[in-house]
Design the sequence.
DNA sequence: ATAATGTATATATCGGATATACACATTAAG
DNA sequence: CTTAATGTGTATATCCGATATATACATTAT
């Protein structure tokens, strides 16, 4: 568990933790059942409060990445890729809806939107 | 100029003013060269500070809807529909890019995105 | 000069976001 | 049962951006 936090970035600490652990899980470097560092332990390492690590773990739990058990610890959950996909799909749909609304207000046709989408989808490197 | 502000809405006052004046202009109820109420005048009517009306007018000016001249007043600019369209297009492109990024991370294919876009574009009432 | 207009600086207030201390509850191990 | 680990809950501190303001200043028209 190499979590690195940067005070300079302006990004909140708990967010940095969440993102990094999510990435580790999504990349398969942390697998189902793997134990995460205890909240206290991680807090010590990073020299931050337990409450901040708790907040990060809470978010990971809400998003279905891990599970915590009082007295035992926190563990990586079975990845529910389908669920994750569904959630992302909802967010994507919301974004597309907003974009479509804006477009309609300026009489920008659907075809133009489709073109743009095609370009940005193709052009963005992951 | 019937500007109506509602303290209950939670929406900031200056935003309410901006939106309502933009709408009046876009709907053609305010035309090129028309004088807006002076900042002080509008502030009196709405029982708010001049600074708040100024802030609203500043935003309208930034967005190219009006122009203000010290000592004279504020006036509706010639509508540059093309410019407005371009600006909206930039915002739309940014939204689509973000959506595309999210989609790629979940291996959601472009075709699925296109479908969704088609649905939300068609289905949203203006 | 006067009275209208817009402008600039410094300030108050509020609320959400972030991070915290400390006490409490649960579990596992001896 | 005691101990030491774990996660949890309540109440609090702090900071920062957003919002709105008062007051004084600058410009224009008459």
Sequence:
């Amino acid at each position: 568990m190499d979590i690195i936090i940067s005070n300079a970035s302006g990004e909140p600490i708990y967010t940095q933790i969440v993102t990094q652990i999510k990435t580790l899980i999504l990349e398969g470097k942390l697998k189902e059942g793997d134990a995460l560092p205890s909240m206290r332990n991680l807090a010590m390492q990073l020299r931050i409060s337990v409450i901040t690590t708790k907040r990060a773990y809470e978010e990971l739990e809400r998003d279905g990445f891990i599970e915590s058990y009082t007295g035992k610890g926190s563990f990586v959950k079975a990845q529910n890729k389908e669920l994750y996909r569904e959630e992302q799909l909802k967010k994507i749909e919301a974004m597309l809806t907003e974009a479509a609304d804006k477009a309609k207000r300026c009489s920008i046709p659907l075809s133009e939107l489709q073109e743009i989408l095609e370009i940005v989808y193709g052009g963005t490197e992951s």
